[in-house]
Amino acid sequence: MHQDILDDGFQNAEPEFDPKTITRINDLKIEINDHLKKMLQGRYTLIALVALSFLAIAVTLVVGNPAVTTTDIIVEGAILVVFYAGLAFLVKYNPLLAFSLGLGLYILYQLLTGIVDPSSIVKGWLIKIVVIIALSRAIHGAVEAKKLLQKLRDMGVPRRETDIVFNELQPIPRTKRKRIED
Question: Is 10 inside any structural domain?
Fold first, then answer.
């Protein structure tokens, strides 16, 4: 009935930390924010793969390939676009899964393309290396961020403060120190 009176201010109460703990918390937050940058780069890489897939469809349709029908080109490209776009969306819910599937799909596609056309392995090698490195770093960033977020929760940092990393892909703000009044 009067639950709001009993809970007034309780939900927004900030935990009290000593200065050394605040320093450790802020150090962890800085590390997490660095890993978040890697995750965002991974997400941008997945979005770039969507654009590259569209570009590949367009170029292949314009240049033409007598060994492949137009329908095959469009279907293959559409499948890649849908998967990469879906994975870019999935990053907000499960970044580790999204980046792992994205890297796996990318490598699998490159291997299959290399089997069909061995010359394709060396075509665009720089882009292939950049994509693999970016997605690998994003996987590493997601794993490390998850570990560090758990450390923050174990230290008593409220979950609502730590959840913004994966739920909103936003950096965690630093914990402010309380001023000592004279």
Answer: no
**Is 123 contained in some domain?**
yes
> What is the share, in percent, of the chain residues with pLDDT greater than 90?
49
Provide φ and ψ at 22, rounded to 5°: -60, -40
pLDDT digits (tens, 9 = 90+) for 74-100: 898 899 999 999 999 999 899 999 999
- Give the domain range for residue 116: 32-167
Note whether residue 120 is domain-resident: yes
Among 148, 153, 134, 176, CA closest to 46: 134
State the Cα torsion 144-164-160-97 to the nearest 10°. -50
Residue 68 is classified by DSSP as S
Token duo for residue 120:
């394709």
Report if residue 12 sits inside a domain. no
pTM: 0.82
Q: Which residue has the higher pLDDT, 5 or 98?
A: 98
Domain count, the chain: 1
